[in-house]
Structure formats: structure tokens, C-alpha cells
């Protein structure tokens, strides 16, 4: 826009009309505001949080393996961008959608959402993740886990200290094992049976369980809150396996080989000894 700045009000440009100068000034401000709105819409369109969520990777398969006599559900996640998420944390939910035996309608399904406790990273500390390297998220299939077969639970009485009891808060067996909870005492027999691989597989298949993963964080570039989601069904679970190492050391430093990120390798049927974090 070209404006005749400094021209007198009685020249041929304005024709002696002072209102034209006012109109041109308003048009100039309107043009600036319109440009600002267009630039803001364009920036917001490409800086949306759902676009940022596409840079979060989840492993194609989850694994269930046995360590020191207990079964663990695991999956892997990582960040593909150079600028990492701030305050990244993860939550797990198990969604059941199974047909009830006493349902009146043939399409009457039971839909329930159960919270799953996270052992690594510890959800007591917020389940925080450092996304600069691939992270393995671990959930123990204990008596409070929705992946635990119900036939292994006591049927005579439910105690929130020993198993899941609605609407009491969900606990973790690892807290009792480490002595940070009062739910168990040395020498007292367990009120539940350790499930077998076949029982867990049958429970996942019968209940139609789907594990929903929600990873949240703040984009350090835009300060927008981002949420990435993924889910695993029984068809996406590999048994007695673990993840291949995908972090390589090169002359330029550490490099993540995303071609190996989804690869699995066989794991021992039961790791009796202490499993180091690098061996997950």
C-alpha cells in the first residue's frame, strides 16, 4: 500500500478532502491486522500438537516375558526430533470389550477401562521419560493388573491389600516386595496363584483386552502440550521376547538406528538372575 505521507490537505492527491487521509490510515491499520491474523493462522496450522505427536514412535509389538517368576508387559517408545519433549510422562489403560454370558442382547458387550500401574518408569515418581534415547515401559502382571487372569484370584473375599478390589485404588506387588507397603508379611502364603502363560493368553483373548498407551509432554519449541497415543491387542503381543539394541556408537556420537527399533529377539523363558536395564 502506497500512502502520500506529508502531502498538504489541499493538493490534488487528497482533493482537499481530509476524510481521505483518515480512510487511508484506517486501511493501513486494517492491512497490518489482516496480515498478522493470516500469519498467526498459518503458524498455528503447522505448529499444532497433533502434528508434533507424529514424531513419537512406539514399537509395533509389545512383549510379555517372565523375569524371576513374574510376567511383565513391555513396549518401547522413542522421539525422532532433535528438540526433545519437556516433562514427558506415560500412562497405561486396559480397555475390556467382551461379550457377557448373561447378556440380553447379542451385541451387548462389556466395556470397561482399567488403569494400569507402571513399574518402569515408576509411576510413583510421575512415570517420567527421557525421550532422547529409546525407553522401555514396564508393567508387572500382578494381582492388581487388569491383565491378571481372574481365575487366579481368590473368590471367597476381596481385599484391596492383596488384589484388585473396586473402587479401592490400584496397588502394585513390587511395593510389597520392596517393603514399602503393608500388604504382605514374610511367611504368609499368597492369597492368589501365579498365572501361567496359557492362562494369561486365554484371558487376553477372551476379554478382548486392548492396552492403550498415552504419552504426554510439552513441546520445547512452541510450549504446546502434546499427546501421542497407541494401543496393543493380543495380536500385537510377542511372548518370551525382548527388543533388539538400536543405539549405536559412531564417530559422531550415539546414533539411533530406527530400522532396528521394532526388531525383537528371543528372551529366556524365565530370567532367574537380576536383569540389567540394558538387557530389557
From TrEMBL:
<keyword id="KW-0851">Voltage-gated channel</keyword>
<comment type="similarity">
    <text>Belongs to the inward rectifier-type potassium channel (TC 1.A.2.1) family.</text>
</comment>
<dbReference type="InterPro" id="IPR013518">
    <property type="entry name" value="K_chnl_inward-rec_Kir_cyto"/>
</dbReference>
<dbReference type="InterPro" id="IPR016449">
    <property type="entry name" value="K_chnl_inward-rec_Kir"/>
</dbReference>
<dbReference type="Pfam" id="PF17655">
    <property type="entry name" value="IRK_C"/>
</dbReference>
<keyword id="KW-0472">Membrane</keyword>
<keyword id="KW-0812">Transmembrane</keyword>
<keyword id="KW-1133">Transmembrane helix</keyword>
<dbReference type="GO" id="GO:0034702">
    <property type="term" value="C:monoatomic ion channel complex"/>
</dbReference>
<feature type="domain" description="Inward rectifier potassium channel C-terminal">
    <location>
        <begin position="199"/>
        <end position="265"/>
    </location>
</feature>
<dbReference type="InterPro" id="IPR041647">
    <property type="entry name" value="IRK_C"/>
</dbReference>
<dbReference type="InterPro" id="IPR014756">
    <property type="entry name" value="Ig_E-set"/>
</dbReference>
<feature type="domain" description="Inward rectifier potassium channel C-terminal">
    <location>
        <begin position="56"/>
        <end position="148"/>
    </location>
</feature>
<dbReference type="GO" id="GO:0034220">
    <property type="term" value="P:monoatomic ion transmembrane transport"/>
</dbReference>
<dbReference type="GO" id="GO:0006813">
    <property type="term" value="P:potassium ion transport"/>
</dbReference>
<keyword id="KW-0633">Potassium transport</keyword>
<feature type="region of interest" description="Disordered">
    <location>
        <begin position="170"/>
        <end position="192"/>
    </location>
</feature>
<feature type="transmembrane region" description="Helical">
    <location>
        <begin position="12"/>
        <end position="44"/>
    </location>
</feature>
<keyword id="KW-0406">Ion transport</keyword>
<keyword id="KW-0813">Transport</keyword>
<protein>
    <recommendedName>
        <fullName>Inward rectifier potassium channel C-terminal domain-containing protein</fullName>
    </recommendedName>
</protein>
<keyword id="KW-0630">Potassium</keyword>
<keyword id="KW-0407">Ion channel</keyword>
Amino acid at each position: 500500500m502506497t500512502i502520500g505521507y506529508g502531502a498538504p490537505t489541499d493538493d490534488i492527491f487528497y482533493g482537499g478532502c481530509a476524510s481521505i487521509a483518515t480512510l487511508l490510515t484506517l486501511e493501513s491499520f486494517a492491512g497490518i491486522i489482516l496480515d498478522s491474523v493470516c500469519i498467526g493462522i498459518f503458524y498455528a496450522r503447522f505448529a499444532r500438537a497433533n502434528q508434533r505427536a507424529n514424531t513419537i514412535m512406539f514399537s509395533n509389538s509389545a512383549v510379555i516375558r517372565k523375569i524371576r517368576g513374574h510376567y511383565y508387559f513391555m513396549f518401547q517408545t522413542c522421539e525422532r526430533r532433535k528438540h526433545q519433549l519437556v516433562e514427558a510422562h506415560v500412562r497405561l489403560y486396559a480397555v475390556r470389550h467382551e461379550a457377557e454370558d448373561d447378556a440380553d442382547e447379542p451385541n451387548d458387550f462389556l466395556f470397561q477401562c482399567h488403569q494400569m500401574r507402571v513399574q518402569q518408569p515408576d509411576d510413583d515418581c510421575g512415570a517420567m521419560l527421557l525421550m532422547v534415547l529409546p525407553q522401555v515401559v514396564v508393567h508387572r502382571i500382578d494381582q492388581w493388573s487388569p491383565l491378571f487372569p481372574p481365575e487366579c484370584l481368590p473368590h471367597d473375599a476381596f481385599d484391596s491389600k492383596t488384589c484388585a478390589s473396586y473402587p479401592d485404588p490400584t496397588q502394585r506387588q513390587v511395593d510389597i516386595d520392596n517393603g514399602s507397603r503393608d500388604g504382605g508379611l514374610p511367611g504368609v502364603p499368597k492369597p492368589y496363584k501365579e498365572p501361567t502363560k496359557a492362562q494369561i493368553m486365554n484371558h487376553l483373548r477372551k476379554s478382548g483386552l486392548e492396552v492403550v498407551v498415552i504419552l504426554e509432554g510439552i513441546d520445547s519449541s512452541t510450549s504446546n502440550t502434546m499427546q501421542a497415543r497407541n494401543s496393543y491387542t493380543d495380536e500385537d503381543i510377542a511372548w518370551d521376547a525382548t527388543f533388539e539394541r538400536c543405539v549405536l556408537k559412531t564417530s559422531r556420537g550415539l546414533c539411533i538406528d530406527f530400522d532396528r527399533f521394532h526388531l525383537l529377539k528371543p528372551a529366556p523363558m524365565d530370567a532367574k538372575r537380576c536383569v540389567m536395564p540394558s538387557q530389557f
